[in-house]
């Protein structure tokens, strides 16, 4: 029994961080309607950022997160404003090609800078666990999940209560109407992309607590984020988080009951099912 | 929006095409083994890109899991040869059928439920990845330890079993690529081609006019998948080994479509031109990096990524339409001077 | 009404268009132009994966190429190494091999990845140029009837058999007999062949333990908590693993986090637990893991010379972390060089004949003298039990080559310092 609880707990914690990454994608995809196929790559930038900051100034990734967020926000903002904005009206496959090109450049650029070896943030609590009754909770994972939840809460609050947040939601709901009302749509799009990038950057930073960083991880994270966003529901922030947790837990359970090497098969099968049966996802609104 | 492809090939174009064809035919006479191997690779990518182009360029459906068909065809023909002694010329038909069925399933699933755009692309990725992991566990074909074809001494050419010199393989892939061009041209000019054009331009309008959108989109996917299969069969018999991790990798899917994107999606010569640009460019980058003595992993892929971005920003129709205009091959009206 | 354009004659290609076309054709042809031939000596073509997913290993192997010419020069053979990177991509392995042969390579060495090695073998057989495999364990490569392929590396069945047999030696040397074991393996080439060998040999070798579970995991997994939880649930006394690099680190980390303390973590033959990254990341927890793998003989004179050259060339790299890759790559280069010396010429047929006569007693890796059977396989390569001690891979078995005695069972995680 304790084994199942541990596995579910572990899946839940990891899922929350995945959820944060997917959240960034949902924000971008849902508002700007851009297919960000460089999402995993941005996450890996965040991961390397955490490694670098953990190395030289010795900053714990939890503390480095805001810095990484700012850095990725800037990248996202500039990318959207400078390059991607022109593609919003273009056919989707063009966006996709653009972003795959950007993704290729990022992954290989990182490879050239950091080399092929896996890098770790080597936090001191990386081997410790909290003991809660029969549960052994991985400290690093708990902190990461906590930070992910915090970031999500901040994001929720931003979109719900702040002016720019409401403006962004207006853009998403009705672009023409937003323009008519006088909102600077381009600026808001750039802001949104920056926010989405910051989100996934934080997720990467947190992920670096638990995982060793290699640039080849990027495409997997991109795919994972898309799977979660689609399962959870496009445009729904809660959906992204829910999707993340769902994937985290189901992969863990699938790994336990079936062959662990078939874990990912399960997620892909789930994606296919959702695409076919309920493309708006669990919490998404039907377009 | 033109495909950069006129209804009739102007005389100058035919001459150029003839020259290019003659040159390619003559290559083994003057080229060394290295150049031959690079050209074989180029032609393979040109062929696979052309097959992908049918789905994307002609019918507007983005497939990012095209390596699924390559992999399935490779394994099917490989297994038929090793376990049942059935040669590639027979095996390819079963490979085509299986690839077409796989494409049909994906297409049917996708279109039946109205899955479009990036969702459809993700569907194709999901199927390719799912198949990769499945084959990793498929012990009968070696699982992740790989599947090997027995290789014999290759000084004689056995065309029937595709056991032979690299020159033989070069001509086979050259013939395949030429065949693909012919098939695609025929498709473009047929009624099917015009239905696809209509669907690509405006799916709702096409439906309103009475075109059975579901059926023709499905046909595009099936034809594209089936057309890709011979590439997989060729791979199996040329390289004689396959691993699920490599055969069904998403990086291979992207490799296949790069040429078509750079050359020009939807055009007839785009994928071929793109392949001829990309691979030599890659080799040049690698050679330059080697000569500079610098140890930078990833330079080639970085250049490819940069090229993708440049093309899609500045030449979204691809290089072929631009080149065709420059060479005066698109039959456009030009004054006596220029 | 006709327009003037209808009566235009087709214009000939303009000069500029022709020049562009010629340039393009010239570039294409230029790619095939061979490098200028160098002075006498053996030209060895070395193909390695220096980029792509095998980059780490390929870069490691490449270090041997940087120190080999000087060392081989001291042994009386002048070699020139032409190297190429096949980017962990099978199609490119073929093209790069062709290129190096084109550039004048008289003997090929490579390439770490079985798929790539198979491609190289086909090209080499086609040209009649010898290929000496440094690392590549797929058994099929020496079963194809090639006349030009020589492999100075065990096949995966041999690796597994040697690795498993050493387990018994380990139990004998430490007077232990774990009663239960669980086998975890990555679902990749190594892992699957280890599993196959395991299933076949366990009944034959009469181990004291009963295998409670076999857990296969995705080598790309970032998270092995479920797999370790499964292993822990069996309460097995011995954990046998077959890993790659990143998952080795994940495995031990999870073991510590989940507080699972088997008597030992032993690999019957896989990379990962003796990598530099493993030590850097796991620190004190890296110690006492055992890998049964072909290894360099710390007591061999050649090892000393290679280690010295390595330390001089790469002062900031620990030799032990690269010794496996460097050792086998150097030995392959050595085999090529010695064959050239024996043959007295670089003619392919002479080289092939000389290679078949290879009998090198003074070499670096543990095992009998280097020699090849009629299939081109060297069957005398032994495995050693390499245990991590003080964050350094240390040979503990066989006794003849051992630097220290093995420690088994290992101290618990909490007792590490």
List keywords for this structure.
heterotrimer, A: 287 residues, mainly alpha, two-stranded antiparallel sheet, 3% strand, globular, B: 338 residues, ABC transporter involved in vitamin B12 uptake, BtuC, 14 helices, 2 strands, disordered C terminus
Structure notes:
The complex is a heterotrimer of chains A (287), B (338) and C (417). The termini of chain A are far apart. In chain A, helix 2 packs parallel to helix 4 (92-114), helix 2 (39-55) crosses helix 8 (185-207) and helix 6 packs across helix 8. Helices cover 73% and strands 3% of the residues of chain A. Chain A contains eleven helices and two strands, in the order H-H-H-H-E-E-H-H-H-H-H-H-H. By secondary structure, chain B is mainly α. Chain B has a single domain (11-326), classed as Orthogonal Bundle (ABC transporter involved in vitamin B12 uptake, BtuC), CATH 1.10.3470. Chain B has 14 helices and two strands, in the order αααααβααααβααααα. Chain B has a two-stranded antiparallel sheet with strand order 1-2. In chain B, helix 3 (67-84) packs across helix 9 (213-239). Chain B starts with 10 loop residues before the first helix and ends in a 12-residue tail after the last helix. Chain C has two domains: 42-154 and 299-356, Response regulator (Rossmann fold); 157-293 and 384-415, Response regulator (Rossmann fold, 3-Layer(aba) Sandwich). Chain C is built from twelve helices and twelve strands. Chain C has helices at 15-31, 55-74, 90-102, 114-127, 156-174, 189-205, 225-234, 245-257, 276-282, 301-313, 319-343, 348-356, and strands at 42-48, 79-85, 107-110, 131-133, 149-151, 180-186, 210-217, 238-242, 264-267, 290-293, 384-389, 392-397. Classes of the chains: A mainly alpha (287), B mainly alpha (338), C alpha/beta (417). Chains in contact: A-B, A-C, B-C. At the B-C interface, helix 1, helix 2 and helix 12 of B face helix 1, helix 3, helix 4 and helix 6 of C.
């Amino acid at each position: 029994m304790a084994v199942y609880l541990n596995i579910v707990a572990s899946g839940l914690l990891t899922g929350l961080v995945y959820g944060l990454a997917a959240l960034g994608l949902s924000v971008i995809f849902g508002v700007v309607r851009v297919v960000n196929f460089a999402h995993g790559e941005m996450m890996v930038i965040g991961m390397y950022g955490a490694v670098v900051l953990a190395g030289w100034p010795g900053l714990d990734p939890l503390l480095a997160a805001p810095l990484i967020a700012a850095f990725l926000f800037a990248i996202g903002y500039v990318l959207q404003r400078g390059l991607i904005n022109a593609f919003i009206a273009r056919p989707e496959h063009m966006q996709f090609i653009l972003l795959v090109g950007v993704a290729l450049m990022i992954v290989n650029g990182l490879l050239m800078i950091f080399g092929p070896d896996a890098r770790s943030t080597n936090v001191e609590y990386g081997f410790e666990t909290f003991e809660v009754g029969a549960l052994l909770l991985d400290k690093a994972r708990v902190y990461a999940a906590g930070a992910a939840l915090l970031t999500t809460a901040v994001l929720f609050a931003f979109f719900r209560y702040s002016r720019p947040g409401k403006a962004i939601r207006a853009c998403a709901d009705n672009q023409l109407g937003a323009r008519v009302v006088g909102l600077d749509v381009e600026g808001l799009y750039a802001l949104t992309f920056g926010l989405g990038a910051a989100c996934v950057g934080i997720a990467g930073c947190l992920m670096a607590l638990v995982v060793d960083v290699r640039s080849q991880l990027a495409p997997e994270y991109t795919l994972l984020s898309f799977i979660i966003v689609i399962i959870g529901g496009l445009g729904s922030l809660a959906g992204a988080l829910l999707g993340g947790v769902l994937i985290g837990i189901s992969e863990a359970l699938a790994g336990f009951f079936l062959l662990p090497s078939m874990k990912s098969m399960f997620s892909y099968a789930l994606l296919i099912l959702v695409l076919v049966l309920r493309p708006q996802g669990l919490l998404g609104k039907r377009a | 929006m033109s495909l950069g492809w006129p209804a009739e090939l102007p005389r100058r174009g035919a001459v150029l095409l003839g020259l290019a064809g003659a040159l390619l035919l003559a290559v083994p006479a003057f080229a060394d083994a290295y150049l031959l191997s690079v050209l074989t690779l180029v032609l393979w990518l040109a062929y696979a890109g052309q097959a992908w182009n049918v789905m994307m360029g002609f019918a507007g459906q983005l497939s990012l899991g095209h390596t699924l068909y390559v992999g399935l065809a490779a394994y099917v023909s490989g297994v038929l040869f090793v376990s049942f002694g059935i040669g590639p010329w027979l095996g390819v038909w079963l490979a085509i059928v299986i690839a077409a069925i796989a494409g049909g399933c994906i297409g049917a699933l996708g279109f039946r439920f109205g899955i479009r755009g990036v969702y459809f692309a993700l569907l194709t990725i999901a199927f390719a990845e799912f198949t990769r992991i499945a084959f990793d566990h498929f012990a009968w074909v070696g699982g992740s330890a790989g599947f090997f074809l027995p290789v014999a001494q290759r000084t004689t050419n056995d065309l029937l079993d595709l056991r032979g010199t690299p020159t033989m393989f070069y001509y086979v892939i050259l013939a395949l690529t030429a065949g693909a061009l012919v098939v695609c041209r025929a498709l473009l000019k047929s009624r099917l081609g015009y239905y696809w054009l209509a669907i690509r331009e405006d799916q709702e309008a096409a439906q309103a006019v009475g075109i059975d959108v579901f059926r023709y989109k499905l046909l595009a996917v099936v034809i594209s998948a089936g057309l890709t299969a011979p590439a997989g069969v060729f791979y199996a018999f040329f390289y004689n080994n396959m691993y699920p991790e490599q055969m069904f990798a998403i990086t291979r899917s992207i490799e296949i479509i790069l040429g078509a994107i750079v050359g020009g999606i939807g055009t007839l010569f785009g994928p071929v031109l793109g392949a001829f640009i990309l691979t030599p460019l890659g080799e040049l980058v690698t050679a330059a990096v080697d000569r500079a003595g610098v140890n930078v992993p990833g330079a080639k892929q970085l250049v490819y990524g940069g090229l993708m971005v440049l093309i899609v920003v500045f030449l979204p129709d691809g290089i072929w339409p631009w080149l065709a205009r420059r060479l005066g091959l698109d039959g456009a009206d030009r004054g006596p001077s220029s | 009404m006709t327009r003037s354009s209808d009566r235009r004659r087709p214009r000939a290609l303009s000069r500029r268009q022709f020049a562009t076309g010629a340039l393009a054709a010239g570039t294409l042809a230029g790619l095939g132009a061979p490098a200028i031939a160098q002075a006498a000596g053996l030209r060895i073509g070395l193909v390695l994966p220096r980029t792509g997913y095998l980059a780490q290993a390929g870069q490691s192997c490449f270090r041997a190429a940087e120190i080999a010419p000087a060392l081989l020069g001291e042994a009386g053979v002048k070699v020139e190494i032409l190297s190429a990177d096949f980017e962990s991509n099978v199609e490119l392995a073929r093209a790069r091999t062709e290129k190096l042969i084109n550039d004048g390579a008289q003997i090929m060495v490579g390439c770490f990845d079985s798929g790539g090695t198979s491609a190289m073998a086909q090209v080499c057989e086609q040209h009649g140029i010898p290929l000496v495999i440094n690392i590549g364990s797929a058994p099929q490569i020496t079963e194809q009837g090639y006349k030009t392929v020589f492999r100075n590396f065990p096949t995966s069945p041999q690796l597994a058999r040697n690795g498993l047999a050493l387990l018994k030696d380990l139990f004998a040397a430490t007077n232990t007999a774990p009663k239960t074991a669980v086998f975890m393996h990555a679902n990749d080439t190594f892992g699957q062949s280890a599993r196959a060998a395991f299933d076949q040999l366990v009944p034959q070798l009469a181990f004291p333990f009963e295998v409670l579970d076999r857990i296969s995991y995705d080598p790309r997994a970032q998270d092995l908590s479920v797999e370790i939880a499964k292993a822990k649930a069996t309460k097995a006394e011995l954990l046998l693993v077959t890993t790659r690099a990143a998952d080795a680190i994940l495995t031990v980390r999870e073991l510590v986090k989940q507080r699972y303390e088997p008597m030992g973590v032993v690999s019957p033959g896989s990379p990962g637990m003796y990598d530099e990254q493993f030590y850097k990341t796991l620190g004190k927890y890296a110690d006492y893991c055992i890998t049964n793998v072909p290894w360099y003989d710390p007591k061999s004179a050649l090892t000393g010379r290679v280690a010295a050259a390595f330390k001089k060339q790469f002062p900031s790299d620990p030799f032990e972390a690269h010794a496996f890759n460097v050792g086998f790559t150097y030995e392959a280069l050595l085999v090529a060089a010695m064959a050239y010396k024996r043959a007295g010429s670089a003619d392919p047929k002479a080289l092939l004949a000389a290679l078949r006569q290879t009998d090198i007693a003074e070499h670096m890796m543990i095992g009998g003298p280097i020699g090849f059977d009629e299939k081109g396989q060297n069957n005398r390569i032994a495995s050693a039990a390499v245990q991590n001690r003080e964050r350094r891979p240390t040979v503990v078995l066989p006794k003849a080559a051992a630097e220290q005695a093995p420690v088994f069972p290992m101290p618990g995680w909490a007792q590490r310092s």
